[in-house]
Write the structure tokens for this entry.
Amino acid sequence: MLASASPRRHALLRDAGFSFHARAPQVDESAVDGEGAAQYVARLAAAKARDVAARYAGDRADAIVGADTCIAVDGGILGKPAGRAAAAAMLRRLSAREHRVFTGVHALAAGREAAKVCATTVRFAAICDADIDRHLGHGEFSDKAGAYAIQGRAAPLIAEVHGSYTNIIGLPLAELREALAEVMR
């Protein structure tokens, strides 16, 4: 069972051949003071998996997986933008520079738990206000960490990627496979 309402995570799992059903977790996604990006996503992934496990204990599932993704830049965490102005500010901040995408994955099964964190470095091309307006005009930014989807309309804005592509979409499949192997043995 996937503890996520994210259509991107659902599509990644379907495309990779996983059979699953999903339940939306109900957790507070606020950052804790002094918490780094890796700690933040690890904490939220665990909270999401545990929340769904507790609320849907009667559902049949071999394993429950929670995940959370954020962007780290300048020592801060970028989550989902609060609106168009916040999204534009995020994109200006990412223009012509590197940032890191972190995703925490947490798997639960048969009383065992496994946690993984994946980090991928992404470098944006230099983007101008017209690029930002064009990107924001499609509304794709609204529920994406850092206000972009690499697999969508932001693809032309990305100059370089070092690491897991599926991590940037929101679920690093290699780490997911490792976590599931640890809890399903």
Summary: Residues 37-55 form the longest helix (19 residues). The chain has one domain: 2-184.
